[in-house]
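TICKET #2291
ISSUE: user wants both folds in one file
ATTACHMENT 1:
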Amino acid sequence: MSQQADRDVRSTFGANQWLVDELYEQYLADKDSVDPAWWDFFADYRPRSEAPSGQVNGRPAATTTEAPARPADGAPADAGAPAPSAGPTSAAPAPPSRATTRTPPTTPDDRPAPASRAVRSPAQATPQTPREPDAAVPVAAAQPPTASYAEQPQARLDWDAAQEEVVERLRGPAARVVTNMTASLEIPTATSVRTVPAKLMVDNRIVINNHLARGRGGKVSFTHLIGYAVVEAIADVPVMNAGYTEEDGKPAVVHRGQVNLGLAIDLAKPDGTRQLLVPNIKNAGALDFGQFVAAYEDVVRRARTGRLTVEDFADTTITLTNPGTIGTVHSVPRLMPGQGTIIGVGAMDYPAEFQGASEEQLARMGVSKVLTLTSTYDHRIIQGAQSGEFLRIVGAKLLGEGGFYDRVFTAMRVPYEPVRWVRDNTVDHDTELAKPARIAELIHAYRSRGHLMAETDPLAYRQRKHPDLDIQSHGLTLWDLDREFPTAGFTGKPRATLREILGLLRDSYCRTVGVEYMHLQDPRQRRWLQERLESGYARTPREDQLRILRRLNAAEAFETFLQTKFVGQKRFSLEGGESLIPLLDAILSRAAENGLDEVCIGMSHRGRLNVLTNLAGKSYAQVFAEFEGNQDPRSVQGSGDVKYHLGTEGVFTSESGATTKVYLAANPSHLEAVDPVLEGIVRAKQDRIDLGGDGFSVLPILIHGDAAFAGQGVVTETINLSQLRGYRTGG
């Protein structure tokens, strides 16, 4: 390959050239073992010619010479012959001399001949004495000392030094790394450095990941946020995305129209060595944060599974490397030909002078973790002021300027306002003493108005906020999140951090259920609700999730079958409200396990057929017969009613095997007229069982449709009568 062609390949693949050579060797050995996307590229590809044999890195390889064995002073030339005079020992040959650099032999012919072994003459043999009989073994053998003061401290590490120096020729990927690093020396680079507080990034990442953990899953990493900030900052300083080239032998600069962000990925091979891959995210500037995270994870996944193609390596414009994941605080990475900038991210930790302090002391002092960003750039086309301005913009975005976290939260559909960057407001002792009272005000505000931030609309997304629920409205800031305050037992313990308090408040009042109860006049009722609402978030066990899935599948399959089999027939389907089935299943299961005699249900038309078949025990054959127009054999000309007005009686069996009777009342009206009727039926059943004043063993369930609960007077009248002595049913 010519020198110009080799330079073009390096500018295209950069640090990934070793992988191309390795894949080419696999292509030559077995074409089918390489992804077909590489076949056209390898058809006319020729790897860089290796150095001639006998050379290492272009230099003659060191040879190994063995000096002849030299006998010791006074010893005969033939060490194997007997000595002229009898002596206690024979003269041993001196060790062979060796060159300073030694290449290990690779073939049997290259191995040096073994030195002749000294043979002891009969006269020199040591006479053997008769063996003494074994002494008696003592009953108690002496034991080594075990006390700590008797242990000998180790003065140095055990060092197994190599006996010989070995020169190993670099081949394949290792040799390509040498070529790439040598090529990078042709680029005159400089580096800018900036330290950025990481406090705001840490807090907002916690909010995002907590939201994802309750929904679709997944996590957002610090590298995701930093990488997206780098992409956005290029819009303000586009020269950082440029590249140097030559046109007709004259220097020139390439201004790129899109950002192809390279990701330096370190991979461990099975033999313990490590590889560096630098694929890129195409047109990263056109992606929102959610799309950027998806593209980032896709590139990393394909890199780890070996499914990257030629296009994934081509046309990288700027690279992001994160040696901070292994603890490196500051790095100056090498810049490959064709790129203008490489951004390095250092480890995120507290400043060195504070690393001996406790977490509580650091929170009290308002000390944030920091990370170091470096920008290594091509000084032929980028100046130091431009690089410094670029890092300033990246740092400002990580501190929330320009609505950076608002766009991130919107892209990830987080329904809350991001944490804002402010300075700590601790000014005097009186301000600190007032903060516990402000914590109490914040708790009361969430109990009273937390439902205003609840995510109750699954169709439309918007960021929900209320000034009374903003910690800054109560004189608190993000610096107070890790400080402890007295809570009067709110979190189950006397003291808790503001982060723990806010987490419990949002879990209790601002998730997918809004609760408004502070208008209740009875403090016992409010306390009863608080004890149950403020118990914290717990993920649904896997067994319960599978049961919910089975119930949802049954409900969906039933509606799909009716829609397919009986096209055009009125059925008041449950489509869009299938969650009613697992909800009723949970209530009926709890009623059966607690030994209730019966559960009575009153509901409108919507979803009635699904409840009849999946919960109340009505058979599918009965429902299908009604759709086909078959008459009720118990009547002369049928009941005269439609199938979605009818009720039924059956037995419900829970997963544990407990059973309870189920009664679904007939409802000939689409209104809520069934509500007082069902209450009367339940009261009559309870009176017949007659368990006394508190014996409510029959559970009534009233299911209201659409806006009927608030719009129909019969609902209000039923509720008003529900607590009177002659009407009450226990709920």
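ATTACHMENT 2:
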Amino acid sequence: MFIPRTSLAAAHAHLLRHATPASPSILVLAAPTPDALCASRILTHILKHDFLPHLILPVAGYRDLEVINQKQIKGNETLRFVICIGLGGLFDIAEFLGWDEEDPAGQERPEVWVIDARRPWNLGNVFGGGGRVEGGQDGLGGFGGVKCWDDGDIEVELGREGEAYKALEGMPEVSDEEESDEDDDLEDEEEEVVDLLGEESKGRKRKSSEDEEEDAGRSRRRRLEGEEHETSPEPLPRRGLLSTSSGRYPSSPPLDTHPSSPTPSLPPPMPSQRTLRRKLRRLRHKHQATIAHYYSTGTSYSSPASSLLYSLASDLSREDPDLLWLALVGCSSTELYGHQPPPTIERSTFNILRDEVRRLNPPPPGAAGTSTTTSIDTPRGPDDRSIRISPEFRFLLIRHWSLYDSMLHSPHLIPRLNLFSPSGIKRLHKLLAKMGISLTQCRQSYTHMDMQLKRTLREKVEGVGRLYGLEGVVREGYVRSWGWKAVLSAGDVGAILGALLEGGGTLPEVEEAGSVEREDDEQQRNWNRASDALENIDLLLAAIPGTLTLARATMRVATGLIQKGQIKTLNSFRFAVVRDGPDLGYFLNPGALQRLAMWLGEAIYEEERQGGRRRHLPLVLAVLNGARGVFLCEEEEEEEIVLEEGRAKNRFGIAFQEVAASTNARVRVDSFEASVIEVRQEDLIGFFEELSRRVVLGG
């Protein structure tokens, strides 16, 4: 089932009606991403306001979810709601939790809410209970089942898929084996008919000529008798309006032996069971093809979870600057990992949040208002906690190190200037020279740069940047002040949270990298540090050096792979393998590996595009975890995407999962991301060979 966006307030009323304040009856499961973290914090504020105790747990993959199911969900009689944030959209969560079978104890199962931006939806979650929620005291139907939060794409885009799924649910099972058995029976019947017809034809040939003449004589006599009968006159009926046989009652009308009106047609014969089964089978195949096409179009992303949770707070009239800031950080962080929603949804969300910033943070009396030309880096006072709209450079953490390093490590500039190569570094130096900024100035800390240079930086960057294809390098963003302590943009905070969730720029110990239990403990610590940093500006500022360390490590590894020619090309994809190096430990985290693959993929794509190449291959990046003997593989696809109603879809990730399921190589699909898997060290070559044999690219 799914909950439309207009019914979020009804969902909250449904939660209040069935949750119990006496014990923790709400379990919140969140993916380790900045967006899911911000969304869970918004939900925490709402639940605390309602005095509802709850438990929040980070869930990195299917193994973590299975452990939580065994320890926290099964047999928990007080649990009423399981709220999944950033997970649960791609797989049948009821089947995964074992709810497709009846509970032998007869215990009432909790209700599951799925708030996930990943697409495609698992149609069993969306339409399994009947589709859109209806009825009930709160308009949300009865209690229980799986209910997905719809940001609008289910009702608008999944009409055909919903009809196909519901039709398949109501159809009886008809296997193809029955059709083959019916065809065999039909062939046997046809052979029997042919044999019978053959015997009759042989009998006719044995007729004598005398019998034929006798039959001909009989037929001539019948024709003559028929002609005499047809030409004999019939008695005329009596004329008059009323003719009676007894003089009192009307006589019956004469029988018309040649009626002028046609006789009523007989009803058509009922189709045979075999015909009905064939029609049912064709209809089933049609609906199955519709659903298969939906799943095969590729993976994509929709509205961030933080924007949906802020919509709930707004519907409840509980919005405030703190919750708004969480939504801004969550939505801004999606660009770090390439999880942006379609342009139409992104613009709509941005406009709504911009209006909220202006409404909740009006300028003080006598203030000049919001600046639209220069970045806002000066707070209004020691107690200033306001959020303001400000033009933001798409440079990484520009306020916290030098302008040169910020541009050198910018995900927006790296592919466009090809900064992984020496020629790209020269282009960056020429760009700075044309802007009139010396290397000495731009390598200073940004806070100590000349104020006049800061005021004119936007004009210089936009003017000279057009010569290098840097359109959109400055865009409208959001900044928040914490008194005199700091001024941070929403994008900066998203980058810091992402680094904290990926380890905070600290290399794991060798024994920790080889133990699954230690990895779980490390994941919980990373989540706690990131969650605390959202509420404490001192912890947030203390995490900036680790964020810069992780950015430098990403730059070093990517530069080494490109300059040493370690990216190999096969028929249908490229691949690179990182087996050793001082920075290897940073990328044993799926989030850090995903960011490294995105930087590499965008750089290769932009270089080939500028060179006039039309076909661009996906990139598969593998990093060795020597302590566990596995490769963590990440797939990144830049060019082979399908733009369907403005939604960028990754088709190669689907083939990535299919090969992982069909190959003999020992692989483990543990991440909720379709593009991340683990492969045993000795099976990596076989996995690449099987993936190469797949025809996954067109043209």
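RESOLUTION: both attachments delivered.
EXTRA DETAIL ON ATTACHMENT 2: The CA atoms of residues 270 and 600 lie 65 Å apart.
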